[in-house]
What we know:
Layout: E1 17-22, H1 30-45, E2 49-54, H2 56-59, H3 66-83, E3 91-94, H4 100-109, H5 114-118, H6 121-127, H7 136-150, E4 156-158, H8 164-181, E5 190-192, H9 227-236, H10 255-268, H11 272-279, H12 284-310, H13 313-342
Parallel strand pairs: 1-2, 2-3, 4-5
Helix pairs in contact: 3-12, 4-7, 4-13, 7-8, 9-12, 10-11, 10-12
The structure holds adenosine monophosphate (AMP) and tryptophan.
Amino acid sequence: MSSGTSAVQTPKAFKPRIFSGIQPSGGLTLGNYLGALKRFVEKQDEGIETIYCLVDMHAITTWQDPAKLRHATREGAAAFIAAGIDPKRSILFNQSQVGAHAELGWIFNCVARMGWMSRMTQFKDKAGKNSENVSLGLFAYPALMAADILVYHATMVPVGEDQKQHLELTRDIAIKFNNDYGVSFFPVVEPLIEGAATRVMSLRDGSKKMSKSDPSDQSRINLTDDADAIAQKIRKAKTDPEPLPETAEGLKDRPEAKNLVNIYAALSGQSVAEVVAEYAGAQFGSFKPKLVELAVAKLSPITTEMNRLMADPGEIDRILADGAERADALARPILEQVYDITGMIRSRWR
Ligand code: AMP
Ligand code: TRP
């Protein structure tokens, strides 16, 4: 754009492009794998343009020890690659290396409304009774997330169920920006929340999401867990005394049973109905060993490959640098147009 004025633009078609991110605020879990990573790989393999990001700037909205953050970022990158992300076909990088995210994030802080942000359930959950004392970044977090996506004009965002509200907010920000400036500049993104495991629950409490920040390590399967740890955690997973039902509807009001069946279905690539049909009437004493066998078969190769990659952090850093350069080349021109639309003088850059 060379005019230096923000002419009203006609609506344009956006080409399919996928963006998603994971916070390097700890090790990744089976929930991240089934709800996000595994789906990221499927999208890459469908031949869509895919951009995946370790969102280190999001991670510091809650305190992160610097050495641990660095480690978790590299380990996250290793998990992506071990799970099947090819850094040549997808763009894989960490957020802080592409300044356009933070720059657009600021502009979106000025588009998003306080009221919208106050309704975010993830903020309310994370802040709890402590809302006066959490960081301002934690409150503004969804505006930065919208920037992550929209700075690439991404059209589709694969995520787990817990991110649905943030993606609705991303749509609201895009619509308000377009309306305020009289442009059709940002696409209205589509959340991709699909599959049997869009919300993997804690192994200790079927009403809580499996999370890397849960104080109990028994509540989750980490992608770094070895076969013994996986077996032990699944064997001890909370269940109810009933056998598995005859139909998927029979899992209603049985959150722990439903969770284990969902995990089995997602890992095996079957539908929940198929798994229930296969194990109808089985006791957990016989279902759990089958789940252990399946989980170990699917996760062990990933863990082994992660460990191999982590032995050479320099190589991981090179991959992230290369991804960041390619991401920057996509994001910069879009951000420059945003500055132009909003009336910022950018004579230094032209
Ligand atoms: P986070 O670890 O919060 O950065 O989440 C990264 C991605 O993993 C997001 O798409 C989440 O929706 C997804 N995710 C995290 N935990 C779970 C879970 N327990 N079940 C399904 N998806 C999850
Ligand atoms: N908010 C996401 C989470 O906590 C992580 C994230 C940040 C993200 N930016 C994103 C996910 C952009 C999808 C797209 O899980």
